[in-house]
Description:
This protein is 11% helix and 36% strand. By secondary structure, the chain is mainly β. Strands 3-4-25-24-26-20-21 form a 7-stranded antiparallel β-sheet, covered by helices on one side. The protein has a 5-stranded antiparallel β-sheet with strand order 5-29-6-27-28, with helices on one face. The N and C termini lie far apart (93 Å).
Amino acid sequence: MGIKTCEGCLPEGSPRKGFHGECTDIPLRKYLKVMVAVILMASVLVACKGNSAQTEPVPSSSPTYTASEQPVESNTPQPINPDPSEEPKEEENPVVFYEKIYTINGRENHAYVLKIDISNEKTRIVPYLSFNKIYGYETLTDMIEKTGAYAGVNSGFFFEYGRPSGLVVIDGETVSPGTGRFESIIIEGGNIEFRVVETIVDFSIGEQTYAVQRFNQPREESDIAVYSSYYGNTDRSDLPRRYMAVRDMQVLEYGTVSSPVTIPEDGYLVTFPEDFKFPENIKELLINISVSPSFTDDAIAYEGASMLVANGESLAGDTMPWVGNLNHYDPRTCIGKFNDGSLGFVVIDGRQEGYSTGTTGRETADILLELGFTDAFMLDGGASSAMYYESGIVNKPSDGGIERILAGAMLIFID
């Protein structure tokens, strides 16, 4: 049995090769085989077209999908948009720098600000002494480049040859004693406080305790003095005196001298009046040196002048110890606490007409309050005022833009 077919009556899409326009008898079984082949070929073509649609460019008029929006074969429902909280976020810099310009009675003043998040575990604040010793001078840039600090400002007031004017605590160790006269800023356990500190040092040989008059300070003939390696390589004295070198509560050596004596590393040198009597069994006795108040290992502290701002109010007057007349227009450097608990430094340039004239004490306090400080005091100012951030000095020191050598600085590290 067969059927009659011709070109006009062939099913659409049927193979036409071998047909020449005439009707032909085709067995039914053969016809069915041909139709099955045609259907299979059409299925393959449809499948191929579907696969190519996923790899070939889609015309702009067609809807497109982002990677997160493409359908996913899964038994678990898939979100169309990713959760923003799961996207990686750029870590914020815990040290923020900015500049503000103030016009005061027609005078322009440039203020440079550092704001430090001390709650961030990666930040460290270090009161750095030049050459890591009580005495000496370096530029702020030299200190930064030598230590690898991220930022810094000049620090406080100093005596001759660079000896600090008051309390300095580094990593919990008292390096220079507090005077008991002026506030110190103390950063300990992630908190900032301001208080007056007087350092008391006691020295004992066995059970006998002696009051110490000088700690890392030049001594008078009648003084008992204690020196750590921060003071320098020696005690820098030519006075006749008795001495004792101590480490780990044991006497290393003792005697009488009238020339500088070496201070042991990780130990102390104790000097006495020339008539001081050592016990005969001194090397058998324990030596103890106590410094109070004590601080935790993470603590730093620095003594300044009188408070300029306290509890959100200005305390500025006409004069201030170490600073002198506050009614002059001078460069200023200040350290303090912001109202959100952050640590802050401010440098205000001065003595440069047409750029920045400098500020009085009251004007400085007003700027600090406007910036958001609740408590602050002045560090050394004038030509010493300098701020370093990231790669260089950002302000313009008043001595023709040239850095002055400094006895120390407050350095900021990001670990």
